[in-house]
Input
Amino acid sequence: MSRYFILKEKKMNLLETLSQKTLVADGAMGTMLHARGIDFDKCFDELNLTSPAAVADIHREYIEAGAELIITNTFGANRYKLSRHGLEDDVTEINRAGVELAKRVVSASFKDVLIAGDVGPLGVRIAPYGRVKLEEAREAFAEQIKALAEAGADLIVIETMSDLYEIQEAIKAAKEVCSLPVVASVTFTRDDRTLLGDDPAKVARRVADAGADVIGVNCSGGPSQLLRILKQMRQAVPNRSAKFWVKPNAGWPEQVSGRIMYPADADYFGEYALAFREAGANIVGGCCGTTPQHITAMKKALEAAPAGAIADISILPEDEITAEPAEKPTQFAQRLADGKFSICVEMNPPRGLSTHKLLAGASLLQDSGADVINVADSPMARMRMSAWAVCEVVQRQIGVETTLHFPTRGRNLLRVQGDLLAAHALGIRNVFVVMGDPTSIGDYPEATDNYDLVPSGLIKLIKQGFNMGVDHSGTSIGQPTNFFVGAALNLCPQDMDTEVKNLRRKINAGTDFFLTQPIYRSDDGLKLIEAYEAKHGKLEKPILAGILPLVSAKHASFLHNEVPGIFIPDEARRRIEDAGENSAKVGVELAVDLIQGIKTWASGIYMMPQFHRYDMASEIIVAVK
Output
């Protein structure tokens, strides 16, 4: 069967073609347009309508360079990105124009060239790390992909993705609206992880399971990094029928005299073309910074199949952690002092090295209006990254203030004081002192639970020692610390008198604020406050009530029946159960109603979203702000 027959009579069947040879795709579109004088702040996709000749010239150059597959100029042609230019109603027109423009160029070339409808990220974060719901993301992808398919694209390329949730929705959308082959390609950072921390093996498996016909890696760094990533992907999906796509940048970009430059030249790409094919790539091409010269070099190298050693590059080390100590009162302390209703949200440290997902969630919460991010320390006594490091990374990279959870369990006096100095050196000022979960319930039940201080004792050490410039023995530490210290409070205790005594002891030790256990009735706080004030007078310290949004009927039943101190009213549990698939939405509504009801006595809320549902937390914050 001739290649011409495969391409023309069978709608240019990509998968069959790839079983016969490695195709050469085109290179960069954006950097080529920029080289022609188009500013990066312009809408490149609109050029399909306003400057079609500029786009057509680039397509033509790549075909003449040897590209057997060209990608439409529609990378950002979805309604979210187009809305930044007031073009959200032109999705179909711009995508259709991109395909038709490419078809005219291919027709004029008299060559068999595949046309891939290009689909890039939406440019917004989707749930659970953003406000855009999964179904909304899928609808946006479907709108664009349908226009590309109906205009006559031969395949769909979903590229430069970094969020597995997003690329999965894009693949689903493509499968729903067309029958074209789908390439799903992901980009990686210098550490061979996506921005959300996923490794190449996980990405390859998820993309394959989602139904992609071709698994891809593009953009990222230069050819050496993508060769390394391709090998990991190929190993993770060993199926002989699996197909792979590789389009590297021309190295990491550098800024020279105000211009963005890419160091990898065409000959270097030619050397790697054969290595990509030998490693399992079925389609090779270039991404940012590549030109028709790079494509020519790759095409010639594949046709000649030259031999040669392949060099590797080393990964650059991450930036060192630096932070300047703050001398002023924390923003959190100032808000409470000013009587402003404050919102804290708890996040758990990652189990491994990557902080990308946590940072994405923290960014969403900050954008929504959270005042402070609370970082738990080994919650449920399970091994996690140090909360100190997470607090510092969040403050440095996101710019939102944090509160460090500081358990006393498992720490002797030496470690407690050394950890306090470390936290202060990292710029952490808000600390929440708790006893901590017993190790018997966690990953390492054999670990010791020894401690020298109870929470009230540690609060006293901080407020009457470190914040005065001395350690536990009275020896100077050089200069006073500036910690703002919180303590735990149970608003629904079985023994009210004992809780009032504990509250009084923590206040006397110097506690600045209190965070409570989750509540589901707005009058729970009033009962404890009234009991305290009957014995000790007015309670002057701010209380931030615990809010744990309900996700499902099963979740509500578990909390109500198995977690001591939590009581969920029958009406709330009934609403959650009746909501069915909309239970999370009802959970948000219940939380918002509860928060409105506690504003008469609470100084703020301490939200504890479960199952990484930061999107729910975001909705709640926006509603109550």
In short: The radius of gyration is 29 Å. Confidence is low (pLDDT under 50) at residues 1-12, 255-261, 306-326. The chain has two domains: 22-304, 340-550+602-624. The CA atoms of residues 100 and 151 lie 7 Å apart.
